[in-house]
Amino acid sequence: MKKVILTMALALMAVAGYSQDVLGKWITEAGDAQVEIYKSGDKLNGKIIWLAKGPETTDSHNSDEKLRSRKLLGVNILSGLSQKKDKWEGGRIYNPKNGKNYKCSIWLEGDKLKVRGYLGVFYETQTWKRK
User: Fold this and answer.
1) pLDDT at 64 (0 to 100)
2) 84-97 pLDDT, tens digit each
3) According to the model, what pLDDT value does residue 11 have?
4) Closest CA to 110 of 89, 129, 96, 93
C-alpha cells in the first residue's frame, strides 16, 4: 500500500512540475507567431519557430540595416533569462515589429505565460498560450 501511495504522489508531482515549466512552445498574444523556449546552460532563450505571415518573413524593422533581410524564422527573441524564484528575469526580448530590444522577465500564471518587456519604468505585459 505504501508503494502505491508513493507512486501516486510521485506521479502527481511530475504532472505539477510539467505544468509549471516555461520550456516548450508558446503562441504569442496576437497569435501571429510561435516561440519555442529552451534552456542553454542555466539561461533561457526563445526562438521563433512559426510565423502567420510565412517562413519567408524578414526582419525588416531591425535597427541594423545588415539584418533587415534575414528571415525571422529561427531568430532568438528571448535571451539570457535567469531564474529568480518563480520568475525568469534579467534577459532581453526583441520585438521584430519595431526592431527594438527591451529588458524582459517571464513567469507562469496557471497555464499562461506572462511576458513583460521593460523600457525604464514603463512596461508592457503579454499573455502567451501553450501550443
Assistant:
1) 95
2) 999 999 999 999 99
3) 43
4) 129
Cα–Cα distance measured from residue 88 to residue 95, given in angstroms and rounded to the nearest whole number: 18
- Tell me, letter by letter, the H, E, C secondary structure of 21-52: CCCEEEECCCCCEEEEEEEECCEEEEEEEEEC
Using CA atoms, how far residue 5 sits from 15, 19, 42, 110, 122, in Å, is 15, 21, 34, 26, 49
Cell of 19: 505544468
User: CB of 104 within 8 A of CB of 91?
Assistant: yes
pLDDT at 83 over 60: yes
Q: Can you tell me the distance from the alpha carbon of 75 to that of 99, in angstroms, rounded to the nearest whole number?
A: 12
Cell of 129: 498560450
Q: How many CA atoms lie within 13 A of 54 on its CB side?
A: 2
Residue type, 32: D
pLDDT at 2: 56
- Cα–Cα distance between 9 and 15 in angstroms, integer? 10
Q: Which three cell numbers stand for residue 2?
A: 505504501
> Hey, what's the torsion of the CAs at 59, 52, 23, 85, to 10 degrees?
70
